[in-house]
Amino acid sequence: MKRTVSVALILMLMFGVMLSAAGCANNAQTPAPAPETAPRTMTDSAGRTVTLPAKVNKVYCTTPAAATMLYILAPETLLGWNYQLAPHAKNFIPAPYNELPNLGAWHMTKTTNVEELLKYDFELVLLSVPTDPAIADDIATQTGKPVFVINYPVTESGQYFEVLGEILGKEQRANELADYCNEVIKEIGDKAATIPQDELVTVYYAEGNNGLMTDPKGSIISQALDYVNGQNVADIPEKGGGGMTPITLEQLLKWDPEVIVTWSTFNEKPGFLVEQILANGDWKEIQAVKNKRVYEAPADKPFSFFGRLPAANQIIGFKWAGQLLYPDVYQYDIRQEIKEFYKLFYQLDLTDSQLDDVLDYGDERHLQ
């Protein structure tokens, strides 16, 4: 009798263990549903407290610079561009991003059609400039979307990425980009401080159809020259809100720069201004022309190294400008530096042929 009871008890215990194990297995296979993420609030660069949706899938950027920052960090979230991409820019922006619509800009000159914009699905408007809270609030009213202002200079691109990464939930990639930016800015600043005053190189930044427009010393457009300790000869007041201050040939002849850096505007033939300056007899007595030290800052492949679009795309421009003016101080293998930058920032593995295309008139090859 005792043996019978013992066997029965053992069988009951075994059955209970089996039921318990089955229950655990079912629980493991059917996890509890994750709680929905609630909207959150963040304070923007205008001091506004903005309520953000739990998930941001698409963003409309009001300026080309903001769109560039977003494209670098998370291209899949970019709703569209603010201008028509140049054909050579499209060669360095893969589909579908090179086919995104031109939605216009909403800053100094408004080209955005709000009615057309609202035909697209997006959750957020990203505004870089201006930082006036009233303007941000007005855009929010017109679009019915939250507007978040992020405003940092190029030298603080790391902070821009960190804030944008938090908004989009892309903190890991944002931190990688921020680390690169911060390291380069510190490195360039440290090297610039070592250059003796009597060894500073004078440089002129040429713009416009005839090269007699410029962005003076201290401008955000020509800031790469300043930061690497190049001496911008155009130490004059900046005219107009959009830059490109006119000068005279007489002024330029008096300044007599050692180096000339040019910038081709959107959709212009790369190198046209370099070729024009070198062939212009009126410029022949300038040191830079005599010594054939006239270059074009790489532009629109897909974004400029410096000049227009003052965003993190200019970080590589600091290295380029440094090694151009002071090769003994900024001892970079600039071709390798560009390849590494394009891999991290644009997720592109440049071939040597593509790299030649990027540099184009930005090195000595056009002078040979």
Account of the protein in words:
There is one protein chain. This protein folds into 2 domains: 40-151, Rossmann fold (3-Layer(aba) Sandwich), CATH 3.40.50.1980; 195-367, 3-Layer(aba) Sandwich (Rossmann fold), CATH 3.40.50. It has helices at 2-29, 64-73, 87-90, 114-117, 133-143, 157-168, 171-192, 223-227, 249-255, 272-279, 287-290, 315-325, 334-346, 352-359, and strands spanning 40-43, 49-52, 59-61, 124-127, 147-149, 202-206, 213-214, 231-232, 245-246, 259-262, 294-296. The protein is globular. The longest helix is centred in the N-terminal third of the chain and has 28 residues, at 2-29. The protein contains 14 helices and 11 strands. Mean pLDDT is 89; it is low at 1-30 and 32-36. The protein starts with a helix and ends in a 9-residue tail after the last helix. The strands form 4 sheets. Strands 8-6-10-11 form a 4-stranded parallel β-sheet. A 3-stranded parallel β-sheet has the order 3-4-5, sandwiched between helices. With 368 residues, it is of the alpha/beta class. Helix 12 packs antiparallel against helix 13 (334-346).
Compute the average pLDDT.
89
Please count the helical segments.
14
Rg over alpha carbons: 28 Å
Biggest pleated sheet: 4 strands, parallel
Shape: globular
What CATH calls the topology of the largest domain is Rossmann fold
Number of extended strands: 11
The helix content, as a percent range, equals: 25-40%
Q: Tell me, what is the CATH class of the largest domain?
A: Alpha Beta
| Backbone structural class | alpha/beta
CATH superfamily of the largest domain: Nitrogenase molybdenum iron protein domain
Low-confidence sequence ranges: 1-30, 32-36
- What percent strand? 5-15%
What is the succession of H and E elements? HEEEHHHEHEHHEEHEEHEHHEHHH
Query: What is the rounded distance between the termini?
Result: 108 Å
How many separate structural domains? Answer: 2
Give the CATH architecture of the largest domain.
3-Layer(aba) Sandwich
